Amino acid sequence: MREHDLLVAALLDDDGLALEDFSRACAVEAEWVASRVREGLLPVAGDAPEAWRFTSVHVRRARAMRRIERDFDAAPELAALVADLIEEIEALRARLR
Amino acid sequence: MQFKDYYEVLGVPRDATAEAIKKAYRGLARKHHPDVSKAPDAEARMKEVNEAYAVLSDAERRAAFDQLLARGARAGQDFQPPPGWDSGFEFSGSGFSDAEAAGYSDFFAELFGRMGGAHARPGHRAGGAEFRARGEDHHAAIQLDIEDAFRGARRQVTLRAPQVDAQGRVTLAERTLDVQIPKGVREGQMIRLAGQGSPGFGGGPAGDLFLEVRFNPHGRFAVRGRDLAVELPVAPWEAALGAAVPVAMPDGRTLNVRVPAGAQSGGSLRVRGQGLPGDPPGDLELTLRVVLPGAASPRAKELYETMARELAFDPRARAGA
Question: Which of A24, A59, A68 shows the shortest C-beta gap to B190?
Answer without folding.
Answer: A59
